[in-house]
Amino acid sequence: MTRAPAAGKAGAVAAENGGPALELLVHGVGGASPQQMLGDPRTVCVTGDDTAAIYRRSEDADAEAHPERYRDRPVPEAYVWCNLTSGNSARALWLLLLPFMVINLAHWMRPPAHEPHWAIRLYGVLVRLIALSLTVLLVAAACEVALDLTAWQCAGSVACSRSWSWPGFLSVAHHGWWAQPGRRLALAALAPTGLTVLLWYLSNRTWSAYESQQPLGDTSAEDSPPAPRPAFSRPGFWYGRRLVARLRAAHTAAGFLTTAAAVTVAAARYDHDSTSAVRETLGLLLESTLVVAGLVVVAVVCRRGRTESHLDERLDKAVTAWLPATSLALLALALLYACWGRPDWASAGTLPGDRAFGILAFSQGALVVALAAVAKHLRRRAPGERTALRGLGGPAVAMLACALGGVMTGGVAQRVADWLDHDATPGMNPSAYHGPPPLLTWQASVIPALIVLLVPLLLYFGVRTWRTARADEPRVMADYPTERPDTARTRRIAAARAMAGLTDRAPLFLGIVSGASLLLGAAALVGAWWAGEVPARAADGAPAPVGFAADAVQSLGSWCTGLGFLLFVTWGRRAYKDAAARRTVGILWDVGTFWPRAAHPFAPPCYAERAVPDLAWRMNTWTGRTGGRLVISGHSQGSVLAAAAVWQLPAATRRRVALLTYGCPVERLYGRWFPTYFGPAPLAALHQEVHCWRNLWRATDPIGGPVRTGGDVDKGPLLDPVAYGRTSTHPLPAPILGHSDYQADPAFAHERALLLAALASGLPNQRSDQGSSGRSSG
């Protein structure tokens, strides 16, 4: 990130004001080093730690003690927060938590209606229930692999167990103590139990490391006149400790109970047909207790949402301590019950997992449909033309989370089944090895249909982008009226603008993919329940073309799900070893983990719960100590953090702070997908509350855009490239910058100088004729 020279006007303003001026730089996605941000290899840490810190150039470390040195420029500072998302190689494994992150986003996509309150509460409850189903799905998939495919089918089959040496003492061929099915299941249950404990540990650890920062405090009392505050200005918005603790306890308990149910149902099914009344009674009692405990978990998830109106330090210890402990005790009882000696019990067929996966799939589809109905009702109360998918963005993203969860869980089950059965098609030779539940195979089999649907959709977007680029070529030349036309150069600029416009078509693409996933998932569920076996076997006896097609889609779908899961694992492994790949994964988290964990406690941690308090504390304490003026300068995702931090400031501090954003997705992405928090009303409120605000944007930028608050906030579109051909100022071809290097544009230094001037005068700046131009000159 290069810095443009400071404007002379800013120095004159500093001299007149008699106080220092500070420019607080906040980088965007992908991160940047303090040396890059400050344009100097010698930097020092002013405040912060190895995770996030503020840096200055070495020569500026004591700037406040020597204001005479900074009469012609502001003091630059850089807030570096990239280590919150991409600094540690182990965080690349967070990629496997992608479905949890996606469902957490759906919580924040609620339409911007403030009533009826029952619909707002119901929206949050439905999202949290979908999130709970994803946890159950993940643990159920681990149970399917460890209990059903491995301990029940492979270790219980002489042919399969002899093909592998590692089942060893579990194999029925050894006739050992562990050879009884219940004991094999009890031992295998340690795998999903360990997975649940790992998720609990990561959630608890990341909360302590990232999200346990104290916000600035309640500043609403200082605002006058009193009015309903935007959500970001509430003191408890960036401190969700109570809800995260409750959800972590509930989801941990759900994982334990899922494992306990998988073991108990298998043993109770045998005891129901046996002559032991004691074991049958114990099985029924344990199953009933597990059902009651599951209902308690659901009630805990539904009972309470976020507390944002105040800083809530309380913990519901009856929930956070006793619920996981009780569920773990029930799991221990289930394992003991399964280990009870049953000499005549032999594993045959499969565990009753198909019914469980079917109930999960049906529940997820019903919850997504209910969420769409609630979102539609809220959308009618607050219509907005630029709201993504007409208010259905949240349900669409929730459906995407369920689809990702299905691909990941189905993929691992298919790959393990293929591996154990020596790459034979699972389910096609049940006498030897049954494989995963037929529903997982049916779900995999509809993936080729989804791919077939996506191909013409991608072609449509490609053709439309090409036509848009060709139509934009005359407008490109109109922006450079004195230049000699160059067909190749014009087409490159027009293509860059057209490609940037694809961002605005993302809602349509996601809506089609989510709708198709819902319909195809429902078809897979109906097919599995109707046929009761995999598609290829269900097509036995059908005409040859039908049988061939069923076999083809089953094989192709199986490989697609397996390949999808392997891509997740491979990308995570590569990111663990390769810093460049880890940086790419970090960009994904930069966008996806801005929001607090309000729906799923096992989602990757929210970096904004550390970054926003950092910025708010720095701005408030520096302006209070020095009485100086401050411009917070945010690029890309840094502009979102900057806006959120300004919302948290007291009114007295906001009068000394100006906001400069560039490459800003606040309205273009966040305003459309998260209208309750970045819609027209909150952005208009921010425009009124912050002393002055400028936003720079380019037509070639695929991420940033105007904030559309009216007034003189937006400055753009800036010319990109700044020069069409070779000039005396640019003797070499100027690059098309797109989303990067806004500080190289002359408009940057000019707008920063105007903001400092507005702060010094105490009045919002009225843009001059030069500043009001829609485009900067090269």
Summarize the structure in words.
With 778 residues, the chain is an alpha/beta fold. Among the domains are: 8-81 and 607-761, Rossmann fold; 181-220 and 229-344; 448-577, no CATH class. It is 57% helix and 6% strand. The protein is built from 28 helices and eight strands. It has an eight-stranded mixed beta sheet, with helices on both faces. A hairpin with a 4-residue loop joins strand 2 (43-48) and strand 3 (53-57). Helix 14 crosses helix 18. The longest helix is centred in the first third of the chain and has 38 residues, at 117-154. The radius of gyration is 29 Å and the shape is globular. The two termini are 19 Å apart.
Gist of the model:
By secondary structure, the chain is of the alpha/beta class. The chain is built from 28 helices and 8 strands. Helix 7 (181-188) packs antiparallel against helix 12.
Q: What is the mean pLDDT?
A: 85
Count of strand segments: 8
Structural class: alpha/beta
Shape type:
globular
How many helices? The count is: 28
End-to-end span in angstroms? 19 Å
Rg over C-alpha atoms, rounded to the nearest angstrom:
29 Å
Level-1 CATH class name of one domain: Alpha Beta
Low-confidence stretches: 1-18, 765-778
CATH topology of one domain: Rossmann fold
- Beta fraction: 5-15%
